[in-house]
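Please decode residue identities from the backbone states below.
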């Protein structure tokens, strides 16, 4: 379980006294792994740790904090009148599920050169899809779960094999039977739809705009193709166990460009969603 409270924090950072309209509204948890949606006065330039962040015409923007992000972050705002303001942000440190696996040697399956080449090509394709910038405002929507059910894997978890750390898990896994329908968590454009990637099998990426994108892994069926426009709740795929997977589940990932974030930071808790379904 998460160490911090799950309440969504909306914090309006106060402005300098003489700059009445100067503020940034932050919607999200100020914690490692979180996706933050924010709003500034239109025309304001925003920098996160000196990197420019794109802002839409309504003054809306998104950014994220990686799994092991520094706890001290700095926002810089340059207002339309040229005035610059610094806004330090203090993040909550996350506790991730770490599992020590000792005594048994991890079976290392070295893929053959052909498979290795395929995996490298897949990874390049995924990176390119996530690097795209789309001027869609869908990233601001209240996201919904692409599928409801038992959570069988969480963001940030990691296994340590005989003292050697494995790659952390960056998605949230929802266990479901092969063929269970997966819906779009928000509006977007399909930026990748490939049925047979080496590791992730049936793989789909939905671009929600301004760098925010969803990835689905191990799908058995893909209903939409690259370039298709989808609405929140549209049926886009079916759960599977394709690629290197141990059983049918949906692995949902949320990225801000290449930064891997925790999808559960932008949806209501699964517990609350399931309770609501039961009540209906
Ligand atoms: Zn997973």
């Amino acid at each position: 379980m998460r160490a911090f409270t799950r309440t969504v924090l909306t914090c309006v950072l106060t402005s300098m006294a003489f700059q009445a309209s100067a503020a940034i509204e932050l919607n999200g948890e100020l914690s490692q792994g979180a996706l933050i949606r924010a709003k500034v006065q239109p025309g304001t330039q925003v920098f996160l740790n000196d990197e420019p962040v794109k802002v839409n015409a309504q003054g809306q923007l998104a950014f994220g904090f990686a799994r092991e992000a520094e706890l001290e972050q700095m926002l810089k705002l340059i207002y339309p009148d040229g005035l610059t303001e610094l806004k330090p942000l203090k993040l909550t440190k996350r506790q991730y599920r770490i599992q020590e696996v000792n005594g048994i040697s991890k079976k290392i399956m070295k893929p053959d050169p052909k498979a290795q080449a395929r995996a490298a090509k897949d990874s390049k394709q995924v990176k390119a899809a996530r690097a795209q910038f789309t001027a869609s405002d869908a990233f601001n929507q209240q996201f919904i779960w692409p599928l409801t059910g038992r959570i069988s894997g969480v963001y940030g978890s990691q296994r340590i094999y005989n003292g050697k750390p494995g790659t952390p898990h960056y998605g949230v896994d929802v266990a479901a039977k092969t063929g269970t329908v997966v819906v779009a968590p928000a509006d977007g454009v399909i930026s990748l739809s490939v049925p047979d990637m080496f590791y992730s099998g049936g793989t789909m990426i939905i671009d929600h705009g301004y760098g925010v994108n969803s990835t689905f892994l191990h799908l058995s069926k893909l209903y939409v193709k690259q370039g298709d426009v989808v609405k929140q709740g549209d049926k886009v795929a079916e759960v599977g166990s394709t690629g290197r997977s141990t059983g049918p589940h949906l692995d949902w990932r949320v990225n801000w460009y290449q930064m891997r974030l925790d999808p559960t930071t932008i949806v209501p808790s699964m517990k609350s969603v399931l309770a609501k379904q039961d009540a209906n």
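Observation: The chain has a mean pLDDT of 91.
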